[in-house]
Specification:
Blueprint lengths: L1 H19 L2 E2 L7 E12 L10 E11 L4 E10 L11 E11 H6 L8 E14 L8 E14 L5 E14 L12 E12 L10 E2 L5 H35 L1
Antiparallel strand pairs: 1-10, 2-3, 2-9, 3-4, 4-5, 5-6, 6-7, 7-8, 8-9
């Protein structure tokens, strides 16, 4: 699992420079988003899959670095997953990396596709609430985002988010990627993408110029300068002739 995640990130990073050439909308304030999530979570072991299913919800803040790579800071809260008397029984705060598989393998068109698939992986911290809270632990999450980019401006994304969450390490033991300490999440999310410096909610391509076009522009500028010089000389001659006539 660890090797697969690392290989995917290295592959994305290797193609990042190629895909980012000529892009507009790459400033620090560009390509930010905010989203809300809601769905269910259930243990993958030691509990009935459907009988152990409980509600969870959360929010996320995202930043798209390139058309391929992005990051999310995600907070999720679960309900009725323990015997605590609090509204929320536990929370999980995660930093997640996203790899757009469509742009990685099929290239970026200069605008989002109607449907896109992202691979998601990262780490976080699980915290329990209430008297009978779960033990705090390092967590890891991996899954997919099935994105539908809607609207004429592609400012909104509706996403289906299946994922697996592992409880990796507590203060006294390591669980690693053990199915006995894992849960399945199925969330739906709505994400809003803020407009950037290019006036769009996504990366756009700058207009490319080849050397022939540059040479033609330089020739036109040189011709205009020559014509301006000739006009200036004619004006000086006319002024001199006027003075002689006076």
């Amino acid at each position: 699992m660890k090797k697969s995640i690392v290989c995917a990130l290295l592959l994305a990073a290797g193609t990042m420079a190629v895909h980012s050439q000529g892009l507009d909308g790459t400033k620090a304030r560009d390509n930010w988003s905010v989203g809300v999530n809601g769905g269910v979570v259930t243990p993958l072991a030691n509990s009935p899959f459907w009988g152990g299913m409980r509600a969870n919800m959360g929010i996320s803040v995202g930043k798209q670095l390139t058309p391929i790579i992005g990051f999310d800071l995600e907070g999720m809260w679960s309900i009725n997953t323990s015997e605590s008397k609090t509204v929320f029984d536990n929370s999980n705060l995660s930093l997640l990396g996203r790899v757009n598989l469509m742009n990685l393998f099929a290239g970026y068109k200069g605008y989002p596709r109607l449907f896109e698939i992202e691979g998601v992986a990262g780490f976080g911290w699980i915290h329990g609430y209430g008297k009978n809270r779960i033990e705090d632990a390092i967590s890891s999450k991996a899954g997919f985002n099935l994105n539908f980019n809607v609207g004429a401006k592609k400012a909104w994304t509706i996403a289906l988010k299946p994922a697996v969450l592992w409880k990796l390490k507590t203060h006294n033991k390591k669980n690693q990627f053990n199915v006995n300490y894992s849960a399945f999440q199925l969330n739906a999310g709505v994400i809003y993408h803020f407009s950037g410096s290019n006036g769009k909610s996504y990366f756009t391509y700058m207009k490319p110029y080849n050397q022939k076009e540059v040479d033609n522009l330089n020739s036109t500028i040189a011709l205009i300068r020559t014509e301006l010089g000739d006009t200036r000389n004619d004006l000086y001659a006319s002024n001199a002739e006027s003075e002689n006539l006076k």
